[in-house]
TrEMBL record:
N-terminal signal peptide: none
UniProt record similarity statement: Belongs to the metallo-dependent hydrolases superfamily.
Protein name as it appears in the record: TIM-barrel fold metal-dependent hydrolase
Residue stretches making up the Amidohydrolase-related domain: 7-298
Organism: Sphingomonas endophytica
Residue ranges that the Swiss-Prot or TrEMBL entry lists as coiled coil: none
InterPro entries for the chain: Amidohydro-rel, Metal_Hydrolase, Metallo-dep_Lactonases
PANTHER family: AMIDOHYDROLASE, BLL3371 PROTEIN
Length: 318
């Protein structure tokens, strides 16, 4: 058992019979951003998640919208609320809303009315290479999308930002204008190391975002750095991200089951444990749980302050 409580800041659950997920629907191809997702195109339940996380002193988890058909976004949230009522997970929900939707005000109001909804995610990754893009154009440049982003404050919603580094400088200017909206960068900022200046662009983009006090970053999504990632590849990136944002603004997350396409759950969490091992106990408590507690308003309270005394040489130490 790990020695600090763990709040997983980014998980997905799905019931493919109840909700339609276009990206989990055949036919599958290997040339998209995730590669083939056939291996995870089945129900993923709380019981399966608990089994994966069994070695990590998990006390809570944040569910992030899982790419449901936009017409079923509210259905996904309501299903998750029912799951949480029965299973005590997820602890909080980051729901979907298309911020450029003409009806976005009503959509945000409906999502925010659900008890566990704390934020919104709309994946906005755009790249000049269409094989990398999740969107046909850079939505974040549109006046409609930016107006929708501004509405998040009214509903006390954070925003989970999944973008590419090339989009970050312009997004930093927008985020700076809306300092009351917490923005949590997904998956280490998704560096595109194959680009000619990919690492430098990622570093510059993160530096621009990290300069804003209302931003934080999830240490997750290592398979998006490279499907065949190694510790030697990702450890310097993790160190840079922590250095830029500081332990008070970094959140540990598994991105399961998506990231299990690339490596087992324990391997993903293991490299994050190694990357944070040299920090003080309070700093590790922050990265592994307290930051998620604060940003997503989880209400876990004393569960994050319990010191775990049990040790096992076969279990990870955070």
């Amino acid at each position: 058992m790990a020695d600090v409580p763990f709040v997983d800041a980014h998980i997905h659950l799905w019931d493919v019979q109840r909700i339609r997920y276009p990206w989990l629907t055949p036919p599958f191809a290997d040339d998209g951003p995730n590669g083939s997702v056939a291996a995870i195109a089945r129900d993923f339940t709380v019981a399966e998640y608990r089994a994966q996380a069994a070695r990590w002193n998990m006390v809570g988890a944040v569910h992030v919208e899982a790419g449901a058909d936009p017409a079923q976004a509210l259905d996904e949230t309501r299903w998750l609320e029912a799951v949480a009522d029965a299973e005590q997970l997820p602890t909080a929900i980051v729901a979907f809303a298309a911020l450029d939707d003409p009806q976005v005000e009503q959509v945000l109001a409906a999502q925010a009315a659900q008890p566990r909804v704390r934020g919104i995610r709309q994946i906005v990754n755009w790249h000049s290479d269409a094989r990398r893009s999740y969107q046909p154009r850079d939505l974040t440049r549109s006046a409609a999308w930016q107006a929708g982003f501004a509405m998040l404050k009214r509903h006390r919603l954070s925003f989970d930002l999944q973008c590419y580094p090339g989009q970050m400088p312009a997004l930093a200017a927008l985020i700076a204008r809306h300092a009351e909206v917490p923005v949590i960068i997904n998956h280490l900022g998704m560096p595109v190391l194959a680009d000619p200046h990919g690492r430098e662009e990622w570093r510059a983009g993160l530096r621009a975002l990290a300069a804003l006090p209302n931003t934080a970053i999830k240490l997750s999504g290592l398979g998006f750095v490279a499907r065949d990632w190694t510790d030697a590849l990702v450890r310097p990136l993790l160190a840079e991200a922590i250095d830029l944002f500081g332990p008070a603004r970094c959140l540990i997350a598994s991105d399961t089951p998506t990231d299990t396409l690339f490596a087992p759950f324990d391997r993903c969490l293991g490299v994050l444990a190694d990357a944070t091992a040299a920090f003080s106990r309070d700093e590790r408590r922050a990265m592994w749980g307290r930051n998620a507690e604060r940003l997503y308003r989880l209400g876990l309270g004393a569960r994050l302050d319990i010191a775990v005394e049990t040790r096992s040489t076969s279990c990870p130490t955070l």
